[in-house]
């Protein structure tokens, strides 16, 4: 049990920011992102005893995170028909430099465009943006490395066109 705790805490320390960003891609607002992140952590902790070490701990936790996020998105779509959500707006102090404003606009456009992707492409781009190698992405998603490379090229093109239309 102590070894599991140490492994969990070490993996969390190394990957918590990446996991949170993945959660934010699959959620509509900051509160949902936080809830989803907590759910991901609970699932990882509960599954620690089943980690066999046949892949890296990072690959294993990303696979769990994506599965939890996809289940969340599926549940969220079902509930969307039953509830009306009132989202609050958050105003951040972005800074006064024009370059920062332009970068922020591009980042906002990128996030909006990523959210428009289908679930499979969203998973690929989320892992790619976190700096995972094609091999790691293929291990997590169960696709060939070549297939991942082709998909990333197509996704980049879609995102580029979407951002161009948005800005």
Automatic annotation (TrEMBL):
Transmembrane as UniProt keyword: no
Keywords per UniProt: Sigma factor, Transcription, Transcription regulation
Record-annotated RNA polymerase sigma factor 70 region 4 type domain positions: 109-159
Signal peptide: none
Domain RNA polymerase sigma-70 region: residue ranges: 13-77
Keyword field contains Transcription regulation: yes
InterPro entries named in the record: RNA_pol_sigma-70-like, RNA_pol_sigma-70_dom, RNA_pol_sigma70_r2, RNA_pol_sigma70_r4_t2, RNA_pol_sigma_r2, RNA_pol_sigma_r3/r4-like, WH-like_DNA-bd_sf
SUPFAM superfamilies tied to this protein: Sigma2 domain of RNA polymerase sigma factors, Sigma3 and sigma4 domains of RNA polymerase sigma factors
Pfam families, per the entry: Sigma70_r2, Sigma70_r4_2
Family, similarity comment: Belongs to the sigma-70 factor family. ECF subfamily.
PANTHER family: RNA POLYMERASE ECF-TYPE SIGMA FACTO (PTHR43133), RNA POLYMERASE ECF-TYPE SIGMA FACTOR (PTHR43133:SF45)
Name of the molecule in the record: RNA polymerase sigma factor
Species per Swiss-Prot/TrEMBL record: Lacinutrix iliipiscaria
């Amino acid at each position: 049990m102590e070894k599991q705790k140490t492994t969990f805490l070490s993996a969390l320390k190394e990957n918590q920011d990446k996991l949170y960003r993945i959660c934010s891609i699959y959620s509509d607002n900051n509160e949902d992102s936080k809830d989803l992140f907590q759910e991901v952590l609970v699932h990882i902790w509960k599954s620690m005893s089943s980690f066999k070490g046949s892949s890296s701990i990072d690959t294993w936790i990303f696979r769990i995170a994506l599965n939890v996020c996809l289940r969340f998105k599926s549940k969220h779509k079902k509930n969307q028909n039953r509830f009306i959500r009132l989202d609050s707006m958050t105003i951040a102090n972005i800074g006064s430099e024009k370059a920062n404003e332009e970068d922020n606009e591009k980042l906002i456009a990128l996030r909006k465009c990523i959210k428009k992707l289908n679930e499979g492409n969203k998973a690929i781009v989320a892992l790619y943006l976190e700096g995972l190698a094609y091999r790691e992405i293929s291990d997590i998603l169960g696709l060939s490395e070549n297939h991942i490379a082709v998909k990333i090229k197509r996704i980049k093109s879609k995102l580029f066109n979407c951002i161009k239309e948005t800005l």
